[in-house]
Structure formats: structure tokens, C-alpha cells
DNA sequence: ATTACATCTGAGGGGAATCTGAGCATCACG
DNA sequence: CGTGATGCTCAGATTCCCCTCAGATGTAAT
């Protein structure tokens, strides 16, 4: 599995990389927040997990985490010397999947990496095998995030695609609103806005097939399955 | 979201339940490993996360975690006083999603619960057979909230479906009115309204099989088991 | 800085889902 | 039968949920 290590201290990074490599990880090293974000372009990232050290020179580590979260769904483990509870809560609420305080035990870190990546293994869209979904005239290519309707490409934004991809994982089954929000937005965040509806509306209009996404009143949404 | 709290100390459980409830969780309390496992029967589980205290009277907490993992994909957060690294690693490698050491900060616990449930909002891969109930010519598909009678789809509203799904969990057994109301309406009100009757009536008419839902005078309702 | 776009927020409205209450039907029991 | 208790039907009234829209905020590229 590929792992992105964000850490400004070269010595620490080298030592940790060695350990991780010995346990089967393919480590990429980023020295700054900017470098990390550049590596995480959604179309080509393929990282299974991000190890994010908060003591970065160029940006606030929390900001970086927030930006990562907006860009991809790749799980993030924060690593930092800041042990106080407030920092932990802040980090976790920004969408981090775990928060480890230095100094940490390497074995535990490894166990936590495994725990986190175990969870998101399902969502992995890196294997180019059966990662295409066909629904009537709509074709969804998960790996390259492309959608075509009647053969012509439709440009979807990041959230639009994530939303569609989620629903397309199981056509016909109903996804609850909260479920969709936590999967697509991945941040504990109140539901007072009309955000989800807006994105659904935009999707419906772009796919030129409003009936494809069915709203299940009081519950959520689902894709209508092609006649079975 | 539903949460299963496994904790043998009633005082601790009560206090924690209150906090969790105040943050929007619907808490079920299990006092032993056995009780927890009984609550996690696939058909009625629906828990978003399990909080597992390791200091249980009847079984070793780690074993319970392993058994839970074999039974469902519901995320597990271990809570324990055992702080040593070896225990943490052991727990995480057994399939726990997070490991929190007592005494913990409640806010952090909440943040971790959110982080964990966020990550795994959907992954219990469901065999279609398990989540489908057949009653004569009526077929109920739980995941996609669809009901068909003689092969043709019947549109049910939210309450109608919830009500039918509840009764269908145990065909033949009688559900008491109050029981139905607290399950479907998730509130223990209901003084004097004719609400339940109205929904039952509507269900009967939509299913075109009035005899399917039998009213048990003075008690409640039940589905008649397919008599054949 | 400017621009283009993506995303989020809040108000307003419509329509389905749900609730309510009164009167009617049915049941259990004498 | 007669009677009270319980469940049923029906038609508004009401609530709730979702959609649309228009602008505010945020983000990435020039």
C-alpha cells in the first residue's frame, strides 16, 4: 500500500520510512503542506493513508488536513507533539481519522495505520478491473473519475462525482442523508444547510436524467436500478 | 445514529449514555459480552458503532471484540484502563477501529466516535437473501425499502414501510401498540391520536391483502405467518 | 489582483406525509 | 339483544421534508 508521509524533519522521516518500508508500505515523503497537497491530486493519488505531522514550516497543519479532506477521501492520521485534548478534538473534527501523540510507539502506530486503512480498503478504486458502472445511458468510470451520458463526456465537480460514485456503488439501495454526508464530506458537520440538496439538483441536471436519482422522502436518495 | 454501549458498571453506563444521548445518539446498553453479542444479531443490528469496555465480568473483552468482528462489520471502539502499548496493539489488531484509554476526555471520545463512524458509514456488505422477507406474495426488501406484491412494486411512505418492516421482523408474533409506537416513531408519546390505526389501514389497503396484518384486540398487531 | 468556478448558506414555497377528531363499525360479554 | 370498549374510516388541518433560487464564501488558476 502507498503511504504519504508529511514530515519536515528529514531524519525523522528517514527513520520512519525505513520502518514502514520494512512492513510493506511504499512510502512517499512530502516535506511541506504544499508538497503534500500537490501529491494528492485526486485523479492520480492512490495513497492508502496519509501520515500528517503537524509541525510544518509553511502552513498550519490543521489547515492542511482540512484541505486534504476537501480534496480526497484518503484517510489521514495526525501525528503531533500537541497532546492537549482541545487539539485532538480539533484535529479529529477536521476530518482526521486518528490522532497520535509523540512520542509514540512504532508498533502502535503501525497497528493504527492498519486499523484505519482496513476501513477504507473497500472504497479503493485503484484496481482498474470492474470499476465501471453502467446505468442506462450513464457510464461511470471510477478510476479516472469520468462520467459519460449517451457517449458524451459530462464534467462533474469533485463533490458531484463523489456523490454519484457513492450511490452507484449499490444501485437501487437507499442511502440515508447522514450516511451520504459522512461519506462524501467526511467531516463531522451539522446538517442545517441545504448543501446535499443543491448537489443532488446539480447532478440531476447535468446527467439530463432527473429520474435516475430518486429521492426517498424522509430517508435519503438512491439510484434507480435498471430493470431487474 | 444507534450506538451499542458495552459496560458492566451501571453508573458509568448511565452517565455516559446521558452524554451520548445529548449528542444525538440512540444508546443501547449491554452489561456483558453475551448480551452485546445478542444485540448484534445481523437482522436487528443497525448499530453505527460499538463502544466496548474491556473490563467485563463474563468474558475476556478481546474475545468479545473478535466475535463481534466475525459477526458484523460495525466499527468497534475499545475503552479500557489498560494503557500499555502491548494491549493497545493487541486490541487494534483484533479488528478494533480505535482504542481509548481511561480516564478519557468525553469530548475526545465523542470526536473519535464521529471519526470512526464517518469512516465506515457503509460497508456491511449485505447478501440480498438475508435482508429480504417473504410473506406469501409480499416481498419486502429492507435495504432498498421496496415492497412488491405479486411482483409489482408498491409505493410505501416512510412510516408505512417502517411499520411493515417492524412487524415483518417476526411474523406471527404480536407487537403491542406501545411497542410499535416507540419503535417506529422513536418517541414515547401518543396519548389519544388515531395515528397508528390510520397507518395500519393505509398499509392494508396498499398491500391489497387486508388479512395479512391481523389486529389483536386490546394488544396490538401482528403479521399472519404464511399459512401453507 | 483578477477571474472563474466550486461550494455553501438561507429564505421561500409547494406538496406529500402525517396527524387529529368525530362519528361509525365491530367485538366481547352479560 | 344491549352496552361499553376498542378499533376503523374519513376528511380536513398541519407539519415536515425537499426543491429552487440567488447570493455569499471559499478555492484554484491566470
What does the secondary structure layout of this molecule look like, with pairings?
Two copies of one chain form a homodimer.
Chain A: E1 2-6, H1 10-22, E2 26-30, H2 33-39, E3 49-53, H3 61-71, E4 76-80, H4 85-93, E5 98-101, H5 106-120, E6 132-135, E7 138-141, E8 146-149, E9 152-154, H6 158-169, E10 175-176, H7 177-184, H8 195-207, E11 213-216, E12 220-223
Parallel strand pairs in A: 1-2, 1-3, 3-4, 4-5
Antiparallel strand pairs in A: 6-7, 7-8, 8-9, 10-12, 11-12
Helix pairs in contact in A: 6-8
The structure holds a DNA duplex (30 and 30 nucleotides).
Characterization of this structure:
- The structure is a homodimer of 228-residue chains.
- Chain A is built from eight helices and twelve strands.
- The first copy, chain A, has 228 residues and is an alpha/beta fold.
- In chain A, the strands form three sheets. In chain A, strands 2-1-3-4-5 form a five-stranded parallel beta sheet, sandwiched between helices.
- In chain A, strand 4 (76-80), helix 4 and strand 5 (98-101) form a beta-alpha-beta unit.
- In chain A, helix 6 crosses helix 8 (195-207).
- The longest helix of chain A is centred in the middle third of the chain and has 15 residues, at 106-120.
- The model of chain A is unreliable at 124-129 (pLDDT under 50).
- The interface between A and B is large, with 41 and 32 residues.
- Chain A binds a DNA duplex (30 and 30 nucleotides) through residues 67, 70, 157-160, 192-195, 197-201, 215, 217-218.
Amino acid at each position: 500500500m502507498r503511504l504519504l508521509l508529511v514530515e519536515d524533519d528529514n531524519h525523522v522521516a528517514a527513520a520512519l520510512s525505513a520502518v514502514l518500508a520494512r512492513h510493506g508500505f511504499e512510502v512517499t515523503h512530502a516535506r511541506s503542506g504544499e508538497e503534500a497537497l500537490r501529491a494528492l491530486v485526486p485523479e492520480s493519488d492512490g495513497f492508502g493513508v496519509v501520515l500528517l505531522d503537524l509541525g510544518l514550516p509553511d502552513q498550519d497543519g490543521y489547515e492542511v488536513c482540512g484541505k486534504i479532506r476537501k480534496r480526497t477521501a484518503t484517510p489521514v492520521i495526525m501525528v503531533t507533539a500537541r497532546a492537549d485534548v482541545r487539539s485532538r478534538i480539533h484535529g479529529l473534527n477536521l476530518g482526521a481519522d486518528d490522532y497520535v501523540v509523540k512520542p509514540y510507539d512504532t508498533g502502535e502506530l503501525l497497528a493504527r495505520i492498519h486499523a484505519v486503512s482496513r476501513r477504507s480498503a473497500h472504497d479503493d478504486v485503484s484496481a482498474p478491473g470492474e470499476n465501471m458502472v453502467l446505468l442506462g445511458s450513464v457510464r461511470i468510470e471510477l478510476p479516472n473519475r469520468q462520467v459519460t451520458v449517451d457517449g458524451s463526456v459530462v464534467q462533474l465537480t469533485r463533490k458531484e462525482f463523489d456523490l454519484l460514485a457513492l450511490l452507484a456503488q449499490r444501485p437501487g439501495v437507499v442511502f440515508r442523508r447522514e450516511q451520504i454526508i459522512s461519506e462524501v464530506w467526511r467531516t463531522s458537520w451539522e446538517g442545517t444547510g441545504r448543501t446535499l440538496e443543491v448537489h443532488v439538483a446539480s447532478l440531476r441536471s447535468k446527467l439530463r436524467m432527473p429520474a435516475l436519482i430518486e429521492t426517498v422522502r424522509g430517508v435519503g436518495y438512491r439510484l434507480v436500478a435498471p430493470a431487474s
